Structure to design on (189 residues):
């Protein structure tokens, strides 16, 4: 559901539902809360920053995509799920994995105005010709707008975007059907 885990930029680590309805537990006179926070955590509950409370993490998303593809291989094209929830659009698991790959890729690709979600509202990165095409591979990403967060040199896992772009290009049913696939083919080949 786009109201919960599904973002325009991947799968969130915690449901957006908890933004308005945080989970809380009273224990020994102390209140412990789990709230949706789309960016940096305000809680030190888990020994410092607890950044798993809403942001998008590439390794987790990648494992979800790989699992969907393996389940698609097992169940085949006839097994379909509604994606996104409430859309009445039924997709097989392979197509769901491709949609998730596109959402993750949108973190790095330029939008209609030429901006990249990864750069958030950092004007220099968005517009300066010396910066705008040099991507940073952040540790994790804002759960609502895809902006890069944490360390900006996490090529070990965020570099997985290269694999996703390759897979989108190789396995799309028609490589020139959509603007997205055309953008990927021309921008990254």
């Amino acid at each position: 559901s786009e109201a919960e885990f599904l973002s325009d930029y991947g799968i969130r680590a915690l449901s957006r539902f908890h933004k308005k309805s945080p989970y809380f537990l009273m224990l020994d006179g102390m209140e412990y809360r789990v709230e949706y926070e789309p960016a940096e955590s305000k809680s030190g509950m888990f020994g410092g920053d607890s950044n798993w409370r809403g942001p998008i993490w590439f390794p987790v998303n990648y494992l979800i995509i790989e699992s969907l593809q393996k389940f698609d291989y097992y169940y085949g094209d006839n097994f379909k799920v509604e994606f996104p929830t409430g859309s009445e659009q039924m997709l097989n698991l392979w197509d769901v994995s491709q949609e998730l790959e596109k959402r993750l890729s949108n973190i790095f690709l330029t939008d209609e105005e030429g901006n990249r979600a990864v750069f958030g509202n950092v004007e220099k990165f968005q517009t300066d010709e010396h910066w705008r095409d040099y991507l940073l591979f952040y540790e994790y990403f804002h759960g609502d707008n895809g902006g890069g967060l944490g360390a900006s040199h996490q090529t070990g896992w965020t570099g997985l975007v290269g694999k996703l772009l390759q897979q989108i290009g190789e396995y799309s049913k028609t490589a020139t059907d959509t603007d997205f696939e055309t953008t990927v083919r021309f921008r990254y080949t």
Q: What stands out?
A: The beta strands are 6-7, 10-11, 23-27, 30-34, 80-82, 90-92, 140-141, 148-149. The chain is about 30% helix and 15% strand. The longest helix spans residues 58-75.
